[in-house]
Batch of 3 targets.
Target 1
Amino acid sequence: MDITERKITKIAREAEKLVLLTMREEGVGTAEIDLIHAVRHHPGCTQAQLAELLHADKAAIARRTKNLEAKGLLIRRDAPSDRRSQLLYPTKKAESLRSSKAEIEAAFYEYLTNVLTAEEAAVFAAALSKLYTASKTESRAGFPHFRKAAGGEAAHEKG
């Protein structure tokens, strides 16, 4: 039984809605945010590589990159090994969107935690930190303990 009722995920989705709403007000859409994020994590990639990474149509990626370039969020540079190929890089403006996103999320979470007393907030923060550490540890290991526990539960429920 999931005692969290997936509320961590649901709160994160609400924060993401706020971020997307704010970004749209700045003229950047959801698909564009995903593309900027991908370029930030893979600077110097090509449009073809982006299409593959994002599982998107090459024509759609071409349109988005053109729009983002016009908005000053991406720049193109000729590939040194192939002059026909262009590499994409985020601009400082794109990097500042990342800061904006983090600031919006932090402000929203601070707003939410204001409904807690100081003691409740401290207990919540400690528990959340413990869960986050366990999550990252398990993730870095490839989820072996979770897979074993989930497999065991599934086998137990079938028997």
Target 2
Amino acid sequence: MSLFGDGLEAAVQKAFTRPAPKNAGPQMRYLVKQLKGTKAVAELLGVSQRQVERYVAGKARKPRPDLASRLEREVKKRWQPQIRARARERAASTDGIVIDTRARMGYTAPIGSTDQDRIRHLTVALPPQHAARLFEAQEAGASDRELKEITAEALREVYFQDGGRRAGSLEEVRFTDVEHLEFEL
């Protein structure tokens, strides 16, 4: 995925009520149950059907690092879909989302202002409409660049322009380098 996409996904995963399986055997069994067969899991993970069967039976235990990361990613992507949907819906309708970032940001503003990029550490509560835009874009398969632009627009409106209460016409906020990014529902 991406920095912004992974950050949104991590925020949603904090809402899980039970931890996802950690070992390869339980993870494979979960995927086999979800995808209704070992063949579909094998195709998804890029391994043989026989290898999936070995993990399900407990004969294979420790996958290669690349397979382990793919396996974990696919399990987490499917884990607790109703709770995931409820957390996203709550953030998009009532609660909003909090972004905590340490990034080099600049902005385009009227002549005479200092629009030099500089490192800022911001913790900003974004209203539900911005959370909804982020989640809709993520579900539609938006790239990291698109998610970054949506986040920058939200920061421009909420933080830099204080919801329209600050004077001046700030045209754009841009991330040039992100050192830390965390979303919280």
Target 3
Amino acid sequence: MARTAGAVAASLLIIGGTAGTTFAAETDRTVSAADTWYPSVEVNNNFAVVATTHPDTVGCNGYNVTGSGTSTGRPIASGTWTQTEVACLGTIPGKWDIKGTASITEADGDKLNISYQLTAPVTSDTMVYPTGTFKITGGAGNYEFATGSGKMNARVNLLDHDHVSSSLLGEIQYLG
């Protein structure tokens, strides 16, 4: 009986191993578009910012930042980018803590609103690369009932406030 059990176990290992090897060696399998994730939000923003000292020099120890510029991508082919944020040095040790809101407005008045939260290490370098997340908070026109979220990153030269960029990559859903 023990020999029979051992033979069955060995057979299963051989068959299972062969089946796995055979499947792994198959070359007729392709990945279809249905198997691939395509983001429905893919937006690049280029803008200028104005930074003023935040009034809380202890708790925040940072800046109020406003910005405006252009956006291209999808679901908005092109539009204007406007933002308001607070960038603090005093809330997360060794990091910029950036919280803000932004709107992307199309020429016809449709507007997509987002909120975002980013962080970046504090270094002696003048280049800062904040990363984090964004949430879609509705808007106007076609985006009135929009929701969604994704990843956001930015590129900021602390000495050149005229050439800031950010990108959004994620999902949008329409709820109405």
